[in-house]
């Protein structure tokens, strides 16, 4: 079901899981889960919620946590307790709060780390990739992650997901009752809607050896991101176009990325106009890279949402993306769409965005309108609506 904003009650107290955004666990490189957790932490207070950030300490070492207060048990120990102790035993959230603090009304888990708690639990499950496409998940972690996500889906009082597409996956793969799922689209912060100063942008581009107008991709290097076909499509473009426009791939190494990394390095050594940036940890620099792009190309084979699309829309960059999974829903007509299995269609879309002024202008304007609809402020308000729905039962 869709969620619409309501007037938030100022005294609603929510424990928010920020484990995925803890610096000790991310090395300064937030993935989609980390961006989601951090964004809710920043925007939920503006929607009338008193937020208490809480984290599962790595290996139980609470001294390493910087963002949230430590939950009383590490996640492995809490999970073990779930398995061995009676169903009436719950993890106490109160012991993680400052002394004398009022109890929480609800706990929001932003990833698969769900255990029984002494308050209602809302869980955000972003996708079911390890089950729906096991070939895209590490065999070592796949069984554990599948089990944890299925358990999370059963324990949560309610589930939030980022797209209507993901509802279908959660129902089919985890057996979640569709009536217990709400769609809350992700978004961008207000800072993304303002163009960065030209001087700052140009300094960042010069730092990385980039020239304005490049093709840009942002995402972790892993098979489902389909970067190999993006490279194939770029190499089919006319030499004059490749000479004028670099292909910039921004993303850290992911599972099964060894061959892709080797290919990226080989292309650079051969003098192809391909740039791979894997050490980008500054949010401002990422905004600068979007702002300097001529077109954003997102050929992913599977997304539960696809936040980079919205970032590109907000930055005023024309977008071309896959016509699969959640991406048409997120783009809502604001991007050129292509079959991600067709190198020819990817190349045609790339060419259109930089050579057809009418198409380019239409995509930029439509993308800007879409970005104004998909903000973290709106996501926070809609998330609070879910909280009230759960607590009113």
UniProtKB/TrEMBL annotation:
Residues in Glycosyl transferase family domain copies: 214-370
Any one Gene Ontology molecular-function term assigned to this protein's record: glycosyltransferase activity
Keyword tags: Transferase
Domain Glycosyltransferase subfamily 4-like N-terminal: from-to ranges: 31-188
InterPro entries recorded: Glyco_trans_1 (IPR001296), Glyco_trans_4-like_N (IPR028098)
Transmembrane as UniProt keyword: no
Protein name: Glycosyltransferase
